[in-house]
């Protein structure tokens, strides 16, 4: 059957034209590239679909102590890359991460798509720019560090965008990336009901191999990748069809005020995280990529 014009003809990562539809994930239009194994939506959303999505974007201002601890740990490790002291967080939500970086003396910059996020971040005194991937406004070699947390899954031209991002990082600087792991324990368990799989919210689903390949292809040195993070509590499984955007932080954010993190989910996180990470079936891929 001929492909519709709104469908991808080639793999968005490696350009191969052998794409096999994934029947089980039909609702999200998923296909897989036979060559690089990337999973992505063969369907390109219409501008209407994207607009509706933007309007529905919901964030909570509150992040828990766990998230702060994790941010602090990441920022500790960022110190190794501090030279000019500038850091950019792409699509920085409500700027919690940047606020913490600022407290540590970083010169912080953020981007966001929605007026709400821009206003909230600006009210916190953060330097903000409109457009999550609006990086061309920055001069080349500007940043010690660029963070691309949970945006890769929305990008259907990753090589192109990565080239632009690479330019604004100084030589020896870091690109820190997180994105949902398609090979996560939860996806194997929940299959098409896994809430991460959601069209048109997410269009690209990485596993470790294509994740590494993308950054190698774009001249980054892979310092470290891991597939960690556990969120197997019952309430998240029950919420599998929820429309609330699930991000790396969701595990730590109490979307429903009435629900507190249970001792069981804390236990699971503490004890299963190292195992899942070792097996590569954690919920999130995290990568540390250096521009040589
Ligand atoms: Zn491919």
TrEMBL record:
This is Class I SAM-dependent methyltransferase. Keywords: Methyltransferase, Transferase. The keyword Methyltransferase applies. InterPro entries: SAM-dependent_MTases_sf. Coiled coil: none annotated. The keyword Coiled coil does not apply. GO terms for biological process: methylation. SUPFAM superfamilies: S-adenosyl-L-methionine-dependent methyltransferases. It comes from the Bacteria. GO terms for molecular function: methyltransferase activity.
